[in-house]
Amino acid sequence: MKIVDAQVVVTSPGRNFVTLKLTTDDGLTGLGDATLNGRELAVVSYLTDHVVPLLTGRDPHRIEDTWQYLYRGAYWRRGPVTMAAIAAVDVALWDIKAKAAGLPLYQLLGGASRDRVRAYGHANGRDIPELLDSVRARLAEGYQAVRIQSGIPGLKAVYGVHSTDDDGAPVLHQQARPLVEDWDTDAYLRHTPTVFEAVRAEFGAELPLLHDAHHRLSPVQAARLGRDLEPYRPFWLEDCTPAENQEALRLVRRNTTTPLAVGEVFNTVHDYQTLISEQLIDYVRSAVTHFGGVTPLRKLFDYAAQFQIRSAVHGPEDISPVGMAAALHLDLAVHNFGIQEYSGHTPLTDEVFRHAYTFTDGHLHPGEAPGIGVELDLDLAAAHPYEAAYLPVNRLQDGTVHDW
Ligand code: CS2
Ligand code: MG
Fold first, then answer.
1. Is 75 a catalytic residue?
2. What CATH number matches the domain at 3-104, 2.40.30.10, 3.40.50.11540, 3.30.390.10, 3.40.50.300?
3. Within 6 Å (CB) of ligand 1, which residues are found?
4. How many angstroms separate the CA atoms of 206 and 139, rounded?
5. pLDDT per position as a tens digit, 342-399
6. Fold for domain 108-369?
7. Helix or strand or coil: residue 332?
8. What are phi and psi of 25, to 5 degrees?
9. Whose CA is nearest to atom 7 of ligand 1?
């Protein structure tokens, strides 16, 4: 079998997605997600100009060799653009291999280790009453675990909360130029425990509550927040501090028993080396799309399992249904599965990417379709062309740029 065609498809059914479609001489096709939110066209060029020319003629069954060829052969390694491009090739090849075997991908990854995949959803509100309504809405949709993000008194627009303009109209998270959000760490540290207090008072002690600090705290501030949240028993505190400095988590870990989740912006095992080997975290968050594909992410989960660390694949709406489907096959198969983030997509996105995976009673399943179980409607995709869209930029009250 040989790869005879490779297409890079950019579509924007409400938000931008980049998809690689490979076709073999047997007529089999495979899809891979290469979406990098806010930098999509960089990955399009990496694939189109530097990877696609190397793929035609290759044996699609040689997945490990192709991965090593693209990773080591580029000389310049790691980073989100490179690893998103390699991920798209890797997932498309696994899609082809599983289709050739007539099996859903999870069967090639060792088969099911569980019957279904627990998900968590996003609840947010500009204030606590609105957040409580949002939690109710997620529970009504069947979610059995919820991430809670709240507005902060005195701040106009913060991460994870859909803001509105002065006329009350929703302000889009992503715009043609970066939206400027404002931040005050002290206000956030004062307010967040009151948010957990209110949600626990309303929904009780059992509901798993997750929270994302989105890289914004110093280690001592993260330790303070972790300790202040302990009475509310969070399921996890995510990205509490920028973790490129992996050693920073040692101070946090020494000062709180709040479980820690890190890694959605990480793209190789080297980013986690200290965090995992010193058990500084409890969940690894990388997505298939940003970690180089199924091949390396499976290896990461197996490494993490030696340290009792579990998977928690990143799954917001900017991971396409192709990336989500690939994650679900891994989630079903690996032993040290933790939880799967799932925001869902718009109905139009689900039309462009028709998928076999399902969401029922707060759990997901990849389905039994051969491959990863996603079909891309090229005509509908073409009807929704790319639109420039940037992630917001975050500034402190004095105007200093801060982590977003
Ligand atoms: C967030 C993401 O879901 C999460 O945990 O950190 O929504 C993140 O903000 C986006 O993926 C950035 O593109
Ligand atoms: Mg996050």
1. no
2. 3.30.390.10
3. 37, 212, 214, 264, 314, 316, 318, 341, 391
4. 13
5. 999 999 999 999 999 999 999 999 999 999 999 999 999 999 999 999 999 999 999 9
6. TIM Barrel (3.20.20)
7. helix
8. -70, -15
9. 316
